[in-house]
Amino acid sequence: VDTIAFTRGVPAPECLPVEALADCARAAVERDGATILNYGPVAGYGPLREWVAERHGVTPDQVLVTNGSLQGLSLLAAVLVDPGTRVLVEGPTYDRALHIVARHGGEPHAVSMDDDGLDPDALELPAAFLYTIPTFQNPSGRTLSLERRRRLAELAREGRLLVVEDDPYSLVRYEGEPLPSIYQLAEGEGVVYSFSFSKIVAPGLRVGYLVAPVELVSRLEALAVQTYLTPALLPQATVHEFVSRELLESNVARVVGLLRERRDAMLEALEADLPDGASWSRPQGGYFTWLDFSEGTDAAELLARGEEQGVTFVAGRDFFPPGRGGDGSARLAYSFVSPAEIRIGAARLAALLREPRSSPVPV
Ligand SMILES: Cc1ncc(COP(=O)(O)O)c(C=O)c1O
How remote is the CA of residue 361 from the centroid of ligand 1, in Å? Predict the structure, then answer.
């Protein structure tokens, strides 16, 4: 059997605007080759930095354009996290963010969540910062409500909590009204904002950015110059060409159409196939749904059987600090697989849940 991988949080190949990017890359090199093929500013390609600054109503020196947004988050952690630093994260949260915090010796503490996102009453302050993905979260697909965004923005503005807002998915919205970012609500005070072109243009370009106070951006630049001298400027110039040609909006609409079909296929298949007792999030955008199995189901054991039966997912525990939860849950990514594959994968998952569990080894 061909395995249906609900593990891959990457766009389906048809989401990538290959021809438009080929044209933008050529135009960028022809126009600006002598600059972008050399070493250049560590904070990124000037015109893109200016475009970002204008988009967020800040000055270009508040913007750091990086090789993908994860690199920006990694630099940020290097500056903000020391051994023993307390960092608040959502429970569950993006697994790579957990690893980055751990690599610097920081201690991630998971804040509980419900369908409205993280619970602000569960924040245990003080902490060096809160890392949050408020919109169409990876891994849960959940979105932080407006009221809770306001509360976080208030804490940030009062100087009680530094919020790191990671926002790669907000434009990938299938329905409902867009919500303001925490960054917007706090008018930038006490919030570092991270964005990525991976989900709305192409991840292989590796272009993302951070918006932060000037002083923090300078510290990140100092670290970046020691690490990579200059980010890859050709992809940044390509993205700039893409947005200058006003291709972003139509591309987002196209990608949203392609992925909405997949989200719909996933939710319909789960509804039709899964036995009673399982429950899952109903994302209005993004790549993922979060599945809670019925009481007593061990996601790791189920995954081991799934690997034999041709369906895989990421076990929920990978998205929590070690031992802090997720044992009975899974992240299902629907962004890469086709609607037909989603239906087959969901049916296989349902069959696994109905099968009696492998009997324990007698002692
Ligand atoms: C929440 C979150 N942050 C950051 C990233 C990394 O994105 P980039 O490709 O911009 O490095 C991802 C990618 O999946 C993500 O899900």
Answer: 40
The pLDDT score that the predictor gives to residue 357 is 67
What is the DSSP annotation of 169-201? STT-BSSS-----HHHHTTTTTEEEEEESTTTT
Question: What counts of helices (H) and strands (E) characterise the chain?
Answer: 11, 14
Q: What is the mean pLDDT of residues 69-92?
A: 98
Atom of ligand 1 nearest to the CA of 67: 11
- Which residues are CB-contacts of 210 (< 8 A; sequence separation ≥ 6)? 63, 64, 66, 69, 72, 73, 75, 76, 192, 193, 194, 217, 220
Q: Is the pLDDT of residue 363 over 70?
A: no
Specify whether the CB–CB gap between 349 and 311 falls below 8 A: yes
**Which residues lie with the beta carbon below 6 Å from any ligand 1 atom?**
9, 68-70, 94, 133, 138, 166, 168, 196, 198, 203, 208
Whole-number Å distance, alpha carbon 272 to ligand 1 midpoint, is 31
pLDDT classification of 110: cutoffs 50, 70, 90: very high
C-alpha torsion sign, points 303, 304, 307, 308: negative
Indicate the DSSP class of residue 284.
Answer: S
pLDDT score of 326: 97
DSSP 129: E
- 154-191 pLDDT, tens per residue? 999 999 999 999 999 999 999 999 999 999 999 999 99
| Ligand 1, atom 5: closest residue by C-alpha | 70
- 337: which DSSP letter? S
CB 242 within 8 A of CB 248: yes
Report how far ligand 1's centroid is from the alpha carbon of 170 (Å).
12
